[in-house]
Amino acid sequence: MEKKFDKICCFSLIILAITAVMVYVLNAQIPFMMDDLWYSTCLYSDKPVSSLSDVISAQVWHWHNWGGRSITHGLLQLILMSGEKTADILNTVFVFILSMSVILVSGISSAKNRRFTVSLAAASGMILGLNANWKMSMFWEAGAANYLFITVFIMLFLFSYLRELDDDNLSGEAAAGASDKKTAAKSNIPALPGITLWIIPLAVITGWSNENMGPTCFIISLIVVGLLLKSGKKPAFWMIEGSIFSLAGSVMCIIAPGNFVRSSQIPKKGTLWTLFLRCYSECEAAFRFQILTVLVLAAVLIISTVFCGIKLKIPEKLLLLAALLSWGAMFLSPHYPDRATFGTMCLMISVIISRSSLIIMQKKEASLPLYLGFIIIWLKGLFDLGEYFAISIGWI
Predict the structure, then answer these.
(1) pTM of the entire predicted model
(2) Per-residue pLDDT for the chain (396 aa), expressed as one digit of tens each?
(3) Counted domains in the chain
(4) Are the C-beta atoms of 157 and 206 separated by less than 8 Å?
(5) Is 200 contained in some domain?
(6) Are 224 and 314 in contact (CB under 8 A)?
(7) Per the domain annotation, does 220 fall within a domain?
(8) Cα–Cα separations (whole angstroms), residue 256 to 55, 163, 248, 281
(9) HEC per residue, the chain
(10) How far is CA 56 from CA 37, 40, 75, in A?
(11) Spatial distance between the Cα atoms of 25 and 139, rounded to a whole number of angstroms
(12) Which residues constitute the domain of residue 321?
């Protein structure tokens, strides 16, 4: 089995190399388009953005007149200002940064661990292969800023909180059975360096990201704090900070006057018709946009819990809850495009990787079948990219 795993690791490096080349080539093939052209200006005028002050003034106007996602669109303008070549490189690099952050959330945190290389190949392959609209969420620059880039911050925020639950003494029973309250209040998880300071901008960016993912992260942070209190542990000060600033970011994103300006341009429909359309959008997201991800997730959950008897860990339960919340929150939106399922997909991929890792730890012989499954998903993503490339150069 060790020799087989060594071969799997080597093959994973090949997969990562092919993925990097394909993603970069396709990024170079797809130019700035649609919203990219508008956001490359100061928005309120045709003047191209050329400085940070231009971006700030443009986003102040944007917040008041068109929408609340000032952080993501500010990031977009900075990327557009850097030029297409730089954007192509950044998009390619961030596919793997996002894959790493997904793995961190899944609990496989050591880059020295051989499982990390395999998981990185699996994560990047699934991000491409399970994506409801890879072009509009990763290669269209406006979509990349709103989903590919910003989801990295979201996953890192969740990692900061969920790692606090990875403690054998966290359960209420363990706390109740402790000899004294001081013993129960101790945590053997070392704090992340400087987190009291950097959690503030991370929380603001996370909350001010997307209308569904921002509030979801805030709710998960509150639940983590509640679980710690319930177990007899005192939450660290940074956790309270993170929750507060995450909420502040979400509020700023949602209450933006520009959101109401934009929604006022949508034709009004009756209440029953609106409810029907919202329900339809939710079902379309679940049964069309995300059905492949849901099926893969269901498969590893059934295998790991029913056949292997591995109970769901608390962080995994919270990730599943976060996926459910981020999907359900879009009921409040008049529009639920396929690319908006990107964050939900990444949450589910984290659970898929976590569960798969646990299955392999219990049954090493399962590593090859699981890996073959990931390869099929990667090939599906590679086919989608290859097909688009072939069409764009006239081969098809």
Answers:
(1) 0.93
(2) 667 777 888 999 999 999 999 999 999 999 999 999 999 999 999 999 999 999 999 999 999 999 899 999 999 999 999 999 999 999 999 999 999 999 999 986 554 566 788 999 999 999 999 999 999 999 999 999 999 999 999 999 999 999 999 655 465 444 444 444 444 455 567 889 999 999 999 999 999 999 999 999 999 999 999 999 999 999 999 999 999 999 999 999 999 999 888 777 777 788 899 999 999 999 999 999 999 999 999 999 999 999 999 999 999 999 999 999 999 999 998 889 999 999 999 999 999 999 999 999 898 888 889 999 999 999 999 999 999 999 999 998
(3) 1
(4) yes
(5) no
(6) no
(7) no
(8) 17, 33, 12, 24
(9) CHHHHHHHHHHHHHHHHHHHHHHHHHHHHCCCCCHHHHHCECCCCCCECCCHHHHHHHHHHHHHHCCCCHHHHHHHHHHHHHCHHHHHHHHHHHHHHHHHHHHHHHCCCCCCCHHHHHHHHHHHHHHHHCCCCHHHHHHCHHHHHHHHHHHHHHHHHHHHHHHHHCCCCCCHHHHHCCCCHHHHHCCCCCCCCCHHHHHHHHHHHHHCCCCCHHHHHHHHHHHHHHHHHHCCCCCCHHHHHHHHHHHHHHHHHHCCHHHHHHHCCCCCCCHHHHHHHHHHHHHHHHHHHCHHHHHHHHHHHHHHHHHCCCCCCHHHHHHHHHHHHHHHHHHHCCCCCHHHHHHHHHHHHHHHHHHHHHHHHHCHHHHHHHHHHHHHHHHHHHHHHHHHHHHHCCCC
(10) 18, 13, 10
(11) 11
(12) 2-153+275-392
Place of tokens 């054998």: 168
- Residue 242 corresponds to which tokens in the numbers above? 């993170």
Amino acid at 123: A
| Number of residues assigned to the chain | 396
Tokens of 286: 């679940």
As given in the structure block, the two tokens for residue 233 are 């542990």
Residue 190 within a domain: no
Which residue in 284, 292, 295, 268 sits closest to 330, CA to CA?
A: 284
